[in-house]
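Try this one yourself first.
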C-alpha cells in the first residue's frame, strides 16, 4: 500500500494528496467539489512537483484528482473577492496568472514525465493542466472545455497549452464555443492519449507509469527536454540540435549499457547516468 504524505504539517485541509510507490509519485488534487486552482492549490502543486524532482527515486509523476471534477480552473470567487481592492484586483489577477503559468511550465520542464489521470470534468485552467502534461489518460466519463468565452473571459492562457497539443481548428473550436467535449472527442482532438472505462483508469495509468519508470531516468529526462526544445525550432535548427543531443546521449553510460545489453540479448542494468 502506498504511503499517503500530506504536503503541509498543519491541521488545515490539504489541497492535495501525495502517494508514493516505487518510481512513481501520485499527486491528487484534493479540494472537491471544484478542485479549483486557487493560489493555495497552485502553491501546493508547485511544492509537490519540486519535491518529486528532488526525489531520486521518482521516475514518473501522475497528476490525478478526487471527486467528479478534475479541476474547474481558477477560483473565480477568490478572484472576484479582489475586485474591491484599490486597483480593482489587477495585482492579484497578475499574481494568479503568473503563478498558473509557472505551474504549467513546471510540468513541461519537470525532469520526469507527468501523466494526467482524468476521471471527471476538466474546465478552463483545469483543461490547461491536462494539456500541459506529457501524457493524458481519461475515463469515458471525463469531459473537457474552455468556457471562458461564455462569461466574458477568453481562455487565453489555456490557449497556450491547447494550441501546442491540438490542431489549430480544434483548439479554436473549444476556445470559441466554450462547449464541453467528451473523452473520445478529446482523443480525436489530441488532448488525451487513451480513453478507458472508469474502473480501469487507475490500472491503465499504472501500467503506463510503471513502463516508463522502468527506463533509464537519464534517457527519459534527455528525451523530454529535447522534445519540447526542438518543437519550438525551425526544421534545420531542430535537426542540428537533436543531432547534438544524440551524440551526448550516445556517450552516456546508460546508452552504452543499453546498446550492449541489446546486442548481448540481456536485460540492461541502468545507473541512470
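Now uncover the answer:
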Amino acid at each position: 500500500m502506498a504511503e499517503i504524505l500530506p504536503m503541509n504539517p498543519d491541521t488545515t485541509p490539504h489541497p492535495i494528496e501525495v502517494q508514493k510507490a516505487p518510481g512513481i509519485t501520485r499527486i491528487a488534487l484534493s479540494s472537491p467539489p471544484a478542485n479549483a486552482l486557487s493560489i493555495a492549490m497552485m502553491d501546493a502543486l508547485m511544492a509537490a512537483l519540486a519535491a518529486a524532482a528532488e526525489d531520486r527515486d521518482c521516475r514518473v509523476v501522475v497528476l490525478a484528482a478526487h471527486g467528479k471534477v478534475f479541476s474547474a480552473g481558477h477560483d473565480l470567487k477568490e478572484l472576484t473577492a479582489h475586485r474591491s481592492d484599490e486597483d480593482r484586483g489587477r495585482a492579484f489577477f497578475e499574481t494568479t496568472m503568473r503563478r498558473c503559468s509557472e505551474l504549467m511550465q513546471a510540468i513541461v520542464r519537470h525532469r520526469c514525465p507527468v501523466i494526467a489521470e482524468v476521471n471527471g470534468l476538466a474546465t478552463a485552467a483545469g483543461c490547461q493542466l491536462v494539456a500541459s502534461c506529457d501524457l493524458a489518460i481519461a475515463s469515458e466519463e471525463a469531459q473537457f472545455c474552455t468556457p471562458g468565452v461564455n462569461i466574458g473571459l477568453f481562455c487565453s492562457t489555456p490557449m497556450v497549452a491547447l494550441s501546442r497539443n491540438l490542431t489549430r481548428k480544434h483548439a479554436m473550436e473549444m476556445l470559441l464555443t466554450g462547449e464541453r467535449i467528451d473523452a473520445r472527442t478529446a482523443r480525436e482532438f489530441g488532448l488525451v492519449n487513451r480513453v478507458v472505462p472508469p474502473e480501469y483508469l487507475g490500472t491503465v495509468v499504472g501500467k503506463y507509469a510503471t513502463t516508463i519508470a522502468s527506463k533509464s531516468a537519464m534517457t527519459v529526462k534527455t528525451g523530454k527536454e529535447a522534445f519540447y526544445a526542438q518543437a519550438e525550432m525551425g526544421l534545420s535548427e531542430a535537426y542540428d540540435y537533436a543531432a547534438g543531443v544524440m551524440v551526448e546521449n550516445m556517450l552516456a553510460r546508460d546508452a552504452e549499457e543499453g546498446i550492449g545489453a541489446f546486442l548481448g540479448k540481456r536485460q540492461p542494468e541502468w545507473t541512470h547516468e
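Discussion: The chain has a mean pLDDT of 93. The two ends are 30 Å apart (CA to CA).
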